Amino acid sequence: MRFPPGEKLGHFEILSPLGAGGMGEVYRAKDRRLGREVAVKALPSFMAADPERLARFQQEARAAGALNHPNILAIYDVGSHEGAPYIVSELLEGETLRQKLKAGSLTARKAVDYGIQTAGGLAAAHEKGIVHRDLKPENLFVTKDGRVKILDFGLAKLKPGHGLGASEPEAPTVELKSTPGSTFGTVGYMSPEQVLGEEVDHRSDLFSFGAILFETLTEQRAFPAGAAVHTLNAILKEEPPAVTAIKPGLPAELDRIVRHCLEKAPAERYQSASDVAFALD
User: Fold this and answer.
1) Cα–chain-centroid distance for residue 66?
2) Ramachandran area for residue 83 (φ above 0: left; ψ -120 to 50: alpha; else beta)
3) What angle do CA 72, 236, 254 make, to 5 degrees?
């Protein structure tokens, strides 16, 4: 790890490492001015020398720093120490949605509750002109008191004119090259327009949200895991089974909501995250 316990980053003091991943190292730290514990995410200097990694790290800070919502990770400060840029955020206690899914099935009530909270956070981001573009269970954190926090805006798309986000993900972000350009995302949660390298807007996040909701309700992926080419082909051409076919006790209305999110054409989906939250509620 880059920073040992006791290292000072301005008025932040490193207490202990929390983990390391593809986009940096995360530490528990103390804000000596306000007397609270925070999380510090640092990009090691060798990564900072990579323009692409540095740009994604800076993008995370700009995007998440523009948002103030209870379901989005709060950013407190940014800085640089000995060539290593860092982001200071609220310290979360709990586990990712992926970890919860691996630990066992969620009740339908919990899945809907997490869905409503996630949709609320997405609505706040979309209202600021920010599209996440890499929504997946690894990027949704559930605190010990049941609050969902959207993490990692490193791939976020900021619309012009709008104001300025711990561990290695199990579903890795990848770059896909296609016509007319290249796109990033996570196989299994990408929208059809992402797969095709087309322009994306907030409705792409709603497709990813639908894939996550499907998984939390059924304990199965909406699109088959395995070889990426098969998964991507399924996203483009296949319809997932009804959630009620997998879990017969689920209300039919939940299947309608999931299918509406997972429409192949953006114009056929819900047109706002607020609409999704309302339907789930």
Assistant:
1) 16
2) left
3) 55
Dump pLDDT digits (tens) for 36-95.
999 998 877 666 677 777 777 777 777 777 788 999 999 898 888 887 888 899 999 999
Residues labelled as active-site residues = 134
Give the list of residues 6+ apart from residue 232 with CB closer than 8 angstroms, or none: 176, 187, 190, 195
**Separation CA 218–CA 242 (nearest Å):** 10
Q: ∠ CA 266-163-116 to the nearest 5 degrees?
A: 50
- Model pLDDT for residues 239-275, shown as the tens digit of each residue: 999 999 999 999 999 999 999 999 999 999 999 999 9
pLDDT, tens only, 192-211: 999 999 999 999 999 999 99
Helices (H) and strands (E) in the chain, counts: 10, 13
Q: Spell out the residues 6+ positions from residue 106 whose beta carbon is closer than 8 angstroms to its own.
A: 100, 114, 216
DSSP labels for 137-164?
Answer: GGGEEEETTS-EEE---TT-EEPTT---
